[in-house]
Amino acid sequence: MQVLISSHDYDYHTLIKVAEMAGLAGIVGFHAAGEDYLLTFPDGENTEALVADYKARLRDLENNIWVH
Question: Distance between CA 2 and CA 16 in Å, rounded?
Fold first, then answer.
């Protein structure tokens, strides 16, 4: 499964850090897509859940940063 993430929303280092925190380092692929980022998740039974968890962690990180 592929997910396009805007560089206006998140930078590359944040995407990598969230993958590490989610235990997905080395599992999720990161590719340049113009100025944006294309993330590739392995196809499987729980792919949708992995993507949902990853996106939730991105939102959680954003909320924790901007809350203060």
Answer: 16
